[in-house]
Specification:
Shape: globular
Number of domains: 1
Number of strands: 5
Distance between the termini: 35 Å
CATH class: Alpha Beta
CATH topology: Rossmann fold
Number of helices: 8
Radius of gyration: 17 Å
CATH superfamily: P-loop containing nucleotide triphosphate hydrolases
Largest sheet: 5 strands, parallel
Helix content: 40-55%
Oligomer: single chain
Length: 227
């Protein structure tokens, strides 16, 4: 069932096809908000450690389908919601989820899954108040095969075993196109101007404000391998 609770806090979703861009965008938005005197937390991929545990498997054991990857993403997201996102929202704070729903939906769809199925899978997650879209870099390159970088890069490694060539350069291009046309909302492209626009949108709603201690309740940091 979809989360219909009206939380006093605000959730900012940031999605993109490349983990390095996601982490940079989340940090830039948080920095812009801090400059305006607004605290926020950041929830990142693999806070649960599920993907890290899978990455420890031997190469021969990495036969994971895109459907299984989506299910694991949903489990990791449920962990993030329980321990990182909802506590901040319930306390009236601001939290950035990078990545959030559209990253998993677009990646799964470009790798062969039915988009409706993925949206149904992730329907338990609350809707974001604001949506950001990373400024895509190195768009002509495929995903790096790195299990410690981000969801798409991790998925590319696993799909090289279970479905060779599925996570291709063409698939990344398709994912970028899907992210450029999100369903049901408008996403702000997070170049320098977009970051200022998003920060101003939060500033306008500061009347309901974030409580100073709320944003610091839970804020995950990248594991040592993610830079």
């Amino acid at each position: 069932m979809a989360d219909q609770i009206a939380y006093p806090g605000r959730l900012i979703a940031i999605d993109g096809s490349r983990a390095k861009d996601l982490n940079a965008a989340a940090a830039a938005v948080a920095s812009a908000l801090k400059a305006d005197g607004i605290e926020c937390a950041i929830s990142r991929w693999d806070a649960s450690g599920l993907f890290t545990e899978l990455a420890a498997a031997a190469r021969a054991d990495r036969n994971i389908s895109i459907r299984s990857l989506s299910l694991i993403y949903a489990a990791d997201l449920a962990f993030r919601l329980r321990w990182e996102i909802r506590p901040v929202l319930e306390a009236g704070g601001i939290v950035i989820a990078a990545p959030y729903l559209e990253t998993a939906i677009a990646f799964g769809a470009c790798c062969g899954l039915d988009e409706k199925w993925i949206r149904q899978l992730l329907r338990f997650a609350p809707a974001a108040r604001l949506h950001g879209r990373t400024e895509e870099r190195k768009t002509q390159r495929p995903w790096k095969r790195r299990t410690d970088r981000g969801y798409c890069e991790f998925g590319a490694v696993m799909l090289d075993i279970s479905a060779p060539k599925r996570a291709s350069q063409a698939a990344r291009q398709e994912m970028i196109m899907k992210l450029d046309h999100p369903r049901g909302h408008k996403a702000i492209e997070l170049d320098a101007k977009g970051i200022r626009t998003l920060a101003k949108a939060i500033q306008k709603k500061k009347a309901t404000g974030s409580r100073r201690g709320a944003a610091s309740r839970r804020s995950s940091k990248p594991r040592s391998g993610r830079k």
